[in-house]
Specification:
Structural class of chain A: mainly alpha
Order of helices and strands of chain B: EEEHEHEHHHEHEHEEHEEEHEHH
Number of strands of chain B: 13
Helix content of chain A: 55-70%
Strand order of the largest sheet of chain A: 2-1-3-4
Mean pLDDT of chain B: 86
Number of strands of chain A: 6
Distance between the termini of chain B: 32 Å
Strand content of chain B: 25-35%
Shape of chain B: elongated
CATH topology of the largest domain in chain B: Rossmann fold
Distance between the termini of chain A: 30 Å
Oligomer: heterodimer
Shape of chain A: elongated
Strand content of chain A: 5-15%
Low-confidence stretches of chain A: none
């Protein structure tokens, strides 16, 4: 175990001190900070804290609540108009005597209508007054408004406004997975091809077994990938925490534990599959550049669901996406993206995970053979035929 | 107990027979030369010996048994195809490689200073490997081979890329290792280095052991193939003599294969036009032996000598 730890530590340091990694690590959090700052600035710029006035000729507004300071009463239209001209209010409503019969009001403003916040606050004020005579429980229910929950009877999954995270998070997680795996698979390819390019293989395999060498490298790069992921997640959580003080919808976000659990089950075998594929490529090619060309093509096998996002939105249960859910290389992203758009039958999840784990085990085994066959071919690549021969053990 | 015992090793890569039949044994406290022309199978033999390749047939015994990981840690290997991580600094690279051989970092650092000083790399310890000259990188690789104080040292072309001064330093280091009781396997094409350093050699040609034994003994065995004569007269057209050339005031006569030096002496003594002041069997250089064996084929020579 000591040598795996030493190699993992060495590879982790090698990756995280690179300028590209640090830049990539900081780019997402900085982008989030910039977005939050921009959103706050925009909100601040468009904010109008002036109250909305009203003239109650219908005699229905008798109830005031502590947070009703954004609704200001005027005895007549003239005094409301002069307050509007003095910019003490941003607009005012005139409730005619027959308001309760017609439910019609007149709105007066100078240039722009009241902003969304002011409109919402005044709306609450009106609603509270209109239901003031009703029993408390009824008042509370009416003021709370409707809550729509869509339930999939076949699979028991629910979608409601409270579970908005169930929709947003899978997409965010898919993109994070995309970024993290792309960067770590690139690193994996680089460290293996680099070992070969630097002619270090013979020295290394007389110090540690090829299995431990690969294991140590994979562990170090997994740690680097997790560093990247956790940094992103931390940045998002902090970003949401800061932004939620301004955006009330964000306060209702709940952690979708079911999604997190399923994705955790798929993440590690998916990451191992990508890593093993990249190690095989790194062991077979002559140098990093050649490896990157091959890896670019192989990456398509992993990232296909993201490229078919438009189709996925239209029909997440289309046979193509069912196939990609079951196919090991596309399983993680397919499941993650489909999670936010509909329900995935349990049998698909179970079969997909089984196929993913089985193909990962096979790939790790095959990679060890390809790596061993290709590692000492300095300046020569291992073509597909030779790689297959190595896997068959010839 | 032999440090290494290699017995009838064979290895094929597809249709190519890289090693056909190689056997030798290495004793503790000796420098052993592994020689052969390019493509003879030396590197494949070393790789099988170090468990990098599995032999198709034959046995390898290292430190009295199969090579496992603890035994691998007692080996220092400087391969022919060698390098270091170019984008890393010298000192951390050497520390990393030595810790993989089982040393703790503190011990590595305490040993490293002396080696860096001795090989004139102390001022370059914080430089990236790619900033070092080829010779410096070569010296750094030698440090990586020896830093964990291995009991078996395998060095493939250890003098490649070194200037005469550094060659001397590395030669001294190899000699010190022998004196310390370590076994050293050295593969090189520099025959004068083999003559100067090696106790015994094996010569591999076309994947087979063609010559094996102590350097002095091999030279003695091949001594009958040439004579050195001092004197005056015409030394041409002597029966049994293949070629005559004058060097440093003496005549060097290469004998025909199977020719008896005593018969040559008698033929010279019988000649009226020749006066002999000195006649002795010439000790051939390893270089000559190497060329002879590889060009003529060891089997043919052995057959004719017999």
């Amino acid at each position: 175990m000591r040598d795996i730890w030493l190699i993992a530590k060495h590879e982790y340091r090698r990756v995280v001190v690179r300028r590209g990694f640090v830049f990539g690590l900081m780019a997402i959090p900085l982008a989030i900070v910039a977005l939050v700052a921009f959103a706050i600035l925009v909100a601040k710029a468009g904010e109008n804290n002036l109250p909305v006035g009203y003239v109650d000729r219908a005699g229905v507004f008798n109830v005031t609540r502590p947070d009703d300071d954004r609704a200001r009463a005027y005895v007549d239209q003239e005094s409301a108009l002069s307050a509007l001209e003095r910019e003490e209010i941003q607009a005012f409503f005139v409730f005619p005597p027959d308001y309760m019969q017609t439910l019609q009001t007149d709105l007066y403003y100078l240039q722009d209508p009241p902003d969304e916040d002011a409109w919402g606050a005044f709306d609450d004020f009106v609603r509270a007054n209109l239901v003031a005579a009703l029993p408390d429980e009824v008042q509370e229910r009416v003021l709370q408004g409707p809550e729509i929950t869509v339930q999939d009877i076949a699979n028991g999954r629910k979608f409601s406004e409270d579970e908005i995270a169930n929709v947003i998070l899978p997409f965010a997680a898919s993109f994070l997975f995309f970024i993290a795996t792309m960067s770590s698979s690139g690193n994996m390819l680089r460290v293996v091809a680099d070992e070969k390019e630097n002619r270090m293989m013979e020295v290394m395999v007389t110090s540690v077994t090829p299995g431990r060498l690969i294991g140590g490298k994979a562990a170090g790069l997994l740690a680097a990938a997790l560093t990247q992921l956790f940094t992103y997640i931390a940045a998002i959580v902090i970003g949401i925490a800061i932004a939620s003080s301004r955006v009330t919808e964000l306060q209702q976000l709940a952690v979708p534990w079911a999604y997190m659990g399923v994705m955790a089950l798929f993440f590690f075998p998916a990451f191992a599959l990508i890593s093993a594929t990249m190690i095989a490529v790194g062991g077979a090619v002559t140098n990093v550049q050649q490896g990157q060309q091959v890896a670019g093509i192989l990456n398509l096998l992993f990232m296909l669901p993201l490229m078919l996002l438009v189709l996925l939105f239209e029909n997440p249960s289309h046979p193509i996406f069912v196939f990609m859910t079951l196919f090991p290389t596309t399983a993680f992203l397919s499941i993650s993206l489909r999670w936010g758009l509909g329900t995935i039958p349990l049998w698909q999840l179970g079969l997909s995970w089984t196929l993913l784990v089985a193909s990962t085990i096979f790939m790790v085994w095959a990679t060890a053979r390809i790596f061993r066959a290709g590692m000492l071919r300095y300046g020569q690549s291992l073509n597909l035929k030779a790689a297959l021969r190595a896997v068959r053990g010839y | 107990m032999h440090t290494v015992e290699v017995s009838h090793l064979a290895k094929r890569f597809g249709e190519t027979h890289a090693v056909v039949d190689v056997s030798f044994a290495i004793e503790p406290g000796e420098i052993f030369g592994l020689l052969g022309p390019n493509g003879a199978g030396k590197t494949t033999t070393i790789r099988m010996m170090l468990d990098i390749f599995k032999p198709d047939t034959g046995d390898v015994s290292v430190f009295g048994g199969e090579l496992d990981m603890p035994k691998k840690r007692r080996i220092g290997y400087l391969p022919e195809e060698r390098g270091l991580y170019k984008d890393l600094k010298l000192e951390p690279t050497l520390v990393y490689l030595a810790t993989l051989k089982g040393l703790d970092e503190k011990t590595v650092r305490s040993r490293l200073g002396g080696w860096l000083e001795r090989l004139d790399l102390a001022d370059h310890r914080q430089k990236k490997v790619q900033e070092l000259s080829k010779g410096m990188q070569q010296k750094a690789q030698i440090i990586a081979t020896l830093l964990h104080e291995p009991d078996l040292i395998v060095v493939d072309e250890p003098f490649a890329g070194l200037d005469p001064l550094n060659t001397r330093i590395v030669k001294d280091i190899i000699e010190e290792q022998r004196q310390a009781g370590k076994s050293v396997i050295m593969s090189t094409h520099q025959m004068y280095q083999v003559e100067a350093l090696c106790n015994r050699i094996v010569l591999i040609d076309e994947g087979r052991t063609v010559l094996y034994g102590a350097v002095d003994e091999i030279k003695r065995n091949f001594a009958g193939n040439a004579v050195v004569v001092e004197g005056q007269g015409d030394f041409d057209h002597i029966p049994g003599v293949l070629e005559v050339r004058q060097h440093d005031g003496a005549w060097h006569m290469a004998l025909e294969i199977g020719a008896d030096p005593q018969a040559v002496f008698r033929a010279l003594a019988a000649r009226e036009d020749v006066r002999i002041e000195r006649f002795e069997l010439a000790e051939p250089s390893l270089d000559d032996i190497f060329i002879n064996v590889v060009q003529n084929g060891a089997a043919k020579l052995e057959e004719n000598r017999a």
